[in-house]
Amino acid sequence: MIAATSSVDATRELAAAVAELVRPGDVIVLAGDLGAGKTAFAQGFGACLGVEEPITSPTFTLVSQYRGGRLPLYHLDVYRLEALDEVADLGLVELLDEGAVTLIEWGDTIAAALPTDFLEISLTLGDGDDDRVLTFASVGPRWGARRRALATVLGPWLVTDGAEEGTC
Ligand SMILES: Nc1ncnc2c1ncn2[C@@H]1O[C@H](COP(=O)(O)OP(=O)(O)OP(=O)(O)O)[C@@H](O)[C@H]1O
Ligand SMILES: [Mg+2]
After folding, report:
1. What atom in ligand 1 is closest to the CA of residue 30?
2. Rounded Cα distance, 103 and 74, in Å
3. What structural domains does the chain harbor?
4. What pTM value is reported for the model?
5. Which residues surround ligand 2, an ion (CB under 5 A)?
6. Could you report the per-residue pLDDT of 45-100, keeping only the tens digit for each?
7. CB count, 10 Å around CB of 38?
8. Which one of 7, 8, 105 would you pick to mutate in the ligand 1 pocket, going by the greatest count of ligand atoms within 8 A of its CB?
């Protein structure tokens, strides 16, 4: 599934639409280069959950926790991690046990340490300065089962719904 946005606000709105589908224990990996819009996604996502605090980049803190919303939100940025051992120190598994929702910026770089079930969203720059392309991939059954629901909420931004992939 591929979606496109033409402003940071549109990326935040798209993220809020994804957050409508989220359940306790969900993990979302945000992939993409510096400035692609991963933190912007986290901001719109958190706002939909009801987080009122400003969501900022956790590049130096590695993990930020927001408890004010309808589910606890953990926002990780693993850009600065140099080894998978350091990922173990984050206690990712314990976080997931709490029934929180976890967003992981640069999560694709720690694939070996991730659970087997997550939604990966890859953000890339588009043609114009404010254009972004977001590619959605469900890994495992949790998000696989929500594929149609995801296509529905992403409707306004979809470039292709991936129907050719044969989901019935
Ligand atoms: N369509 C868009 N979607 C998201 N961000 C956009 C868009 N158009 C422009 N921007 C700008 O791109 C920047 C995205 O920054 P953001 O911090 O979200 O990126 P990031 O992927 O988290 O980067 P980093 O890897 O450094 O954490 C912001 O300055 C934002 O205003
Ligand atoms: Mg960021």
Report:
1. 21
2. 6
3. 2-157 (3.40.50.300)
4. 0.93
5. 38-39, 57, 105
6. 999 999 999 999 887 778 899 999 999 999 999 887 776 677 777 777 777 777 89
7. 28
8. 8
